[in-house]
Every structure is written in structure tokens, then in C-alpha cells.
């Protein structure tokens, strides 16, 4: 670069600047180096922006709770493809379970997909996954899909035959917030769902499921849950005193009215509707489990001794 100047008619000095392109080898090497550095910087910035975009997209795709009305929140993800069976039902309620503690349904948190197992023992591989959760203060309702493998197909056969009808939701131990202890019973106000298990008899008698078909919104599970009964009520005298219309072991030939009780597969079931031939474990809309397996044998024996 060099300058030239001249005096203008008005006496002012006018300066002209001329730029001369350098062609010496050292300058050209330096220029090339700077240009390559700039290209590398732009490439690195493009890579960073792409990674950040992917991270934000993945974060946006993570299922999150959505409020659909007061006190009702849902979390969902697309139904898994290739599933051999879909099921739905109640995974948890605040009912005091067989382990002598209660979990607040509204205090439950979760992440999808949640493993669907057949055992909480820590050795079972998932048979499927939960892809939909609905939580309220009264219950945690879920939908799940079974994988297409040998173990899941065996589980499907047991479900369809009615041998597996109970859900059992397990919490992460480190997530449980103790609200208080009353007479030895623990109450937890917050917890995180670790997994859902399918079983013959769960710790919470409210937790049952059935086969889910697309279009079923699950409202049959959201109705009022039957009053739970203590096994200590199950002597014939106490049953009569408490107004329990015990009809004996369930029979396909009997007509049952709403409010009747019948024993089936070791449990005591409450009839929610008038029905005949509807097995107690076929539909939660027809029957609700009142007392679990093993507690009603004496009622069956007493009923048999009075039947002629």
C-alpha cells in the first residue's frame, strides 16, 4: 500500500491510497494458512450447531407429563411396533398393600418406556414396555405392549387364559419420600415408578389389567373402586352382619346382581353389574377383587355346609 497526495485548488490536501497485491512467497503461505484456519473454524461451528440441534430434538422427544384436566396428567409415547399383545389397567393406588405401606398416586413420577416384567426379583428381563401412563390422586393407569419373543408369547397365553390378571408397580427405593408412619403403616407422598410386573396376585388388590384394544380409553378402570374388605370379616356371621351377599363359589350358571359377592380362584369378588357367565377375572367392569387369594376358603366351606 502506498499513498500519493496533491494540493487541490482550494488549498486542501487530497490523499490517494493505492493497494498493491503482495506476491511474495512468505505472504502467500501465511495467507493460505489463515484461510485454512477459517475454513476449519467454520466446519467446527457447523458440527457444534448440528450436535446442539440433535440434542435439543432428542430432549423435545422425551415423553413429559401433560395436564389434560384438573388433577389428571398423562405421559405417552408411540405404541411399540411389532408387539404381540397390548394390555392396560391399574398399576398403583393409595390402597395399603400387603407390604403395609401406601403410595400416593399423584406423587408418582416415571420415565417412558417403563419396563414390563413378570417379577420384581431383579433377575427378570423385560417382557415388554409401558408406553402410556395416566395419573390422578386415585390411581395410576398404564398401557403396555408385549415383545415378540418366546417368553412374551408364553405370558400372552397366560393372560388370554385368565391366569395372569394382576399388575404390580415397583418404585425406585431411593426416590421414595416418607410422609409419615401411622401404627406401623408407612405412607409415601412421592416416588418414581421403576417397573410394572404382571402376576397372578399382586400386593395391591386394586391393580388388575386386561387386554387393550385400540380405541379403548380405559374408563372402565377409572370408576369407583369397590370397598376393600378385611379377611377378618370373612366368617359367615360377620359376613351376614356386614351385609355381604356371599353367593358361594362363582358358577357360570348363576345369575349375579350388583352387590353380590362370589369366590373365584381363591379370591373374593364383588359384582359391579348384573351378569351371568361373566368370569370374575374377565372384565374389571363386571367384577372387582375385594379380598385376595387364600382368605376366603372358610367362607366356601361354610357355604358348602349350608347348601343342600
Tell me about this structure.
The protein is α+β, with helices and mostly antiparallel strands. It folds into three domains: 17-61; 68-221, Serine Protease, Human Cytomegalovirus Protease, Chain A; 231-306, Ribbon (Seminal Fluid Protein  PDC-109 (Domain B)), CATH 2.10.10. 21% of the residues lie in helices and 35% in strands. It has four helices and 20 strands. Strands 3, 4, 5, 6, 7, 8, 9, 10, 11, 12, 13 and 14 form a twelve-stranded mixed β-sheet that branches. The protein has a four-stranded mixed β-sheet with strand order 15-17-18-20. Strand 3 (66-69) and strand 4 form a beta hairpin. The protein is elongated. It starts with a strand and ends with a helix. The model is unreliable at 225-233 (pLDDT under 50).
Give the key terms.
Serine Protease, Human Cytomegalovirus Protease, Chain A, Seminal Fluid Protein  PDC-109 (Domain B), twelve-stranded mixed sheet, elongated, 3 domains, 20 strands, alpha+beta, 308 residues, four-stranded mixed sheet
- Give me the count of strands: 20
Question: SSE order in H/E notation?
Answer: EEHEEEEEEEEHEEEEHEEEEEEH
| Shape, principal axes of CA atoms | elongated
At CATH level 3, the topology of the largest domain is Serine Protease, Human Cytomegalovirus Protease, Chain A
> Main beta sheet, described?
12 strands, mixed
Task: Determine the number of helices (DSSP H or I, runs of at least 4 residues).
Answer: 4
Residue-averaged pLDDT, rounded? 82
N- to C-terminal distance: 122 Å
Helix content: 10-25%
Strand content: 25-35%
Which regions are unreliable across 5 or more consecutive residues at pLDDT < 50? 225-233
Total individual domains: 3
Give the structural class. alpha+beta
CATH class of the largest domain: Alpha Beta
Spatial extent as radius of gyration? 34 Å
In the CATH hierarchy, the architecture of the largest domain is Alpha-Beta Barrel
Amino acid at each position: 500500500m502506498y499513498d500519493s497526495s496533491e494540493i487541490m485548488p482550494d488549498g486542501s490536501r487530497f490523499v490517494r491510497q493505492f493497494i498493491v497485491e503482495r506476491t511474495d512467497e512468505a505472504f502467500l503461505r501465511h495467507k493460505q494458512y489463515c484461510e485454512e484456519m477459517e475454513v476449519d473454524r467454520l466446519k467446527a461451528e457447523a458440527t457444534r450447531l448440528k450436535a446442539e440441534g440433535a440434542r435439543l430434538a432428542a430432549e423435545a422427544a422425551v415423553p413429559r407429563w401433560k395436564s389434560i384436566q384438573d388433577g389428571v396428567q398423562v405421559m405417552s409415547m408411540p405404541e411399540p411396533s411389532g408387539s404381540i399383545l397390548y394390555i392396560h389397567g391399574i398399576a398403583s393406588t393409595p390402597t395399603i398393600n400387603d407390604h403395609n405401606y401406601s403410595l400416593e398416586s399423584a406423587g408418582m413420577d416415571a420415565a417412558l418406556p417403563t419396563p414390563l416384567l413378570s417379577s420384581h426379583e431383579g433377575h427378570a428381563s423385560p417382557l415388554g414396555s409401558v408406553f402410556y401412563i395416566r395419573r390422578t390422586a386415585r390411581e395410576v393407569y398404564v398401557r403396555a405392549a408385549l415383545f415378540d419373543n418366546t417368553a412374551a408369547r408364553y405370558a400372552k397365553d397366560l393372560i388370554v387364559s385368565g391366569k395372569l390378571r394382576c399388575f404390580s408397580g415397583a418404585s425406585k427405593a431411593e426416590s421414595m419420600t416418607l410422609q409419615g408412619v401411622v401404627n406401623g403403616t408407612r405412607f409415601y407422598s412421592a416416588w418414581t415408578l421403576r417397573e410394572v410386573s404382571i402376576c397372578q396376585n399382586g400386593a395391591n388388590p386394586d391393580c388388575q389389567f386386561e387386554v387393550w384394544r385400540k380405541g379403548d380409553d380405559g374408563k372402565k378402570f377409572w370408576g369407583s373402586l369397590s370397598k376393600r374388605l378385611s379377611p377378618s370379616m370373612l366368617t359367615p356371621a360377620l359376613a351376614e352382619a356386614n351385609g355381604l351377599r356371599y353367593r358361594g363359589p362363582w358358577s357360570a350358571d348363576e345369575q349375579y346382581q350388583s352387590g353380590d359377592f362370589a369366590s373365584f380362584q381363591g379370591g373374593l369378588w364383588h359384582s359391579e353389574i348384573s351378569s351371568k357367565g361373566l368370569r370374575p377375572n374377565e372384565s374389571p367392569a363386571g367384577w372387582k377383587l375385594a379380598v385376595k387369594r387364600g382368605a376366603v376358603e372358610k367362607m366356601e366351606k361354610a357355604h358348602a355346609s349350608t347348601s343342600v
